[in-house]
Amino acid sequence: MSGRSHEEGLKDLTLLGNQGTTYSFEYAPEVLEAVDNLHPERDYFVKFNCPEFTSLCPLTRQPDFATMYISYVPDKKIVESKSLKLYLFSFRNHGDFHEDCVNIIMNDLIKLLDPRYIEVWGKFTPRGGISIDPWCNYGKPGTKYEEMAAYRLMNHDLYPEKIDNR
User: Fold this and answer.
1) In the structure, what pLDDT confidence band is assigned to residue 20 with cuts at 50, 70 and 90?
2) Where are the domains of the chain?
3) Which pathway does it operate in (predicted)?
4) 99 marked as part of a ligand binding site
5) Which one of 7, 80, 122, 150 has the fewest beta carbons within 10 angstroms of its own beta carbon?
6) Which CATH class is domain 29-155?
């Protein structure tokens, strides 16, 4: 038989395949789950696109909408995608600024996965005539990924987008 076995992290998952999934309307980092990376000898990117991310302005409580891009180079663990979906959904009634949301997401994923490298980019829809697109990244200290993070930050968004390519 080929494929991932229960000994390779599947036995610890509680959300995938669970028909009784509960959706939290409040920030819930505890729903995040990880499984073993079966390819730790190789560098590769995992990218998630969440075009329906929502949160609330902390002051006005008005909704904010974004596409959230999460890319990372795993080390020993990878995030289970259903748990990530539920986690991102938990921001629905969470009041924070755009910049805070992307940093919170990145911090929670670093805590869960201890990735070699990660970046989170929130492309929020305009409100009040302005869009805010915060981007943050992290490279594991003392490794080539720390240098990669510094380089990518220094060269991030050198070609700003036009208003018509959102």
Assistant:
1) confident
2) 29-155
3) tRNA modification; tRNA-queuosine biosynthesis
4) yes
5) 7
6) alpha beta
Contacts of 45 (CB under 8 A, 6+ apart): 71, 72, 73
| CA pair distance 134, 156, nearest whole angstrom | 11
Query: What gap in Å lies between CA 65 and CA 81, rounded to an integer?
Result: 20
Quick one: pLDDT band at residue 14, thresholds 50, 70, 90? Answer: low
Q: Which residues are catalytic?
A: 57, 64
Nearest by Cα to 144 from 38, 11, 76, 43: 43
Place of tokens 């995608």: 81
Structure tokens at 65: 């909408």
In the three-class reduction of DSSP (H, G, I as helix; E, B as strand; rest coil), residue 83 is classed as: helix
**Residue 53's closest CA among 79, 31, 16, 84?**
84
> Taking 60 as the threshold, does the pLDDT of residue 165 lie above it?
no
User: What one-letter code names the amino acid at 11?
Assistant: K
* Cα distances (Å, whole numbers) of residue 45 to 70, 112, 115, 143: 10, 17, 11, 17
Q: Determine if residue 156 is labeled as part of a ligand binding site.
A: no
